[in-house]
Amino acid sequence: MTATDTRTTPDADLARRPAHVRTLWIAGTLAALAVVMAASVALGARDVGLSDIVAGLGGAESTLGEAAVKKRVPRTLLAMTVGAALATAGAVMQGVTRNPLADPGILGVNMGASLAVVTGIAYFGLTSPTSYIWIATAGAAATALFVYTIGSLGRGGATPLKLALSGAAVSAALASLVTAVMLPRNDIAGTFRMWQIGGVGGASFEKIGHILPFLAVGFLLCLLSARGLNSLALGDELAAGLGEKVVVTRAAAALGAVLLCGAATAVAGPIGFVGLVVPHLCRLVIGPDHRWLLPLAAVLGAALLTAADVVGRVVNRPSEIDVGIITALIGAPFFIYIVRRQKVRAL
């Protein structure tokens, strides 16, 4: 859909998707999330039965099954939290930049956060989870600004293709820098591994507790910006004519997305493509209205990342495949599909 088409069709799109239909989609996605959560607790290197699940949820760990459940519960919650954060951030980034290719991974934001954390650990001795989040957020913000600046240079400004190419180039460069920082530090190579690929294997309730305040602020900023993002989809001039404070709306939404990316990357590493795939799927079923799009993206993102984690644990038992690899296998073909759709140039 072209930018011109988008200005004339949102009302028609919304008319075809009445509120009760969109509510049913969200309810159905919540039900799917509940099923995936149950699978995440029950499946893994060792499958567990209902009795072990009930006992494990009650705090028991006298058997291997109960101990497995006790470890899988925080892992499931972390996968849900990170998936919801990345999907919401992706939807907001696409709305802020009016770029259908925007995604925390593709634009290099996740890798910028990873490099900041790895550098902090290697050279500044950072050990506090809270410090990880602050430095990851700073790295994410700096990378987002850098990529947008590069993509805005030259004729035509920040086009979707230029932003995607700039993000890919910056992401590749930052990934090389992460490797360069890691190579001479074999003493903490295990700690660094997560910031190369992305995973939720080291989950704990303590980690979740550390990121919740940052995620809460990020989600709140994104949700409060939903109506403004709808106006930005019409173009800056028309949005300003409708009374929208374009700069404030864009800055608030971008800050919310950066907080979500930074916090998610600080605890799970650079997991890519969730923020690209999920918003597009959500638009297909409920339309472009961000007031509905953002909540559905959060729920579907949580379900997708949790399902990807389950797949990674099951397909290679008793070992496991990091969730970042699974999402890349899902998202890379989808990215190619979006790029090859010549009609999709802006939101």
Automatic annotation (TrEMBL):
**Subcellular location per the Swiss-Prot or TrEMBL entry:** Cell membrane
Q: What is its main location?
A: membrane
What cellular component terms from Gene Ontology apply here?
plasma membrane
Q: Which GO terms describe its molecular function?
A: transmembrane transporter activity
Kindly give the membrane topology term recorded for this protein: Multi-pass membrane protein
What's a Pfam family this protein contains? Answer: FecCD
Where is the chain membrane-spanning?
24-45, 76-93, 105-125, 132-151, 163-183, 211-233, 253-281, 293-315, 321-339
- Per the record, the domain of life is Bacteria
GO BP of this protein: siderophore-iron import into cell
Any idea which UniProt keywords this protein has? Cell membrane, Membrane, Transmembrane, Transmembrane helix, Transport
Family classification: Belongs to the binding-protein-dependent transport system permease family. FecCD subfamily.
Which named protein is this?
Iron complex transport system permease protein
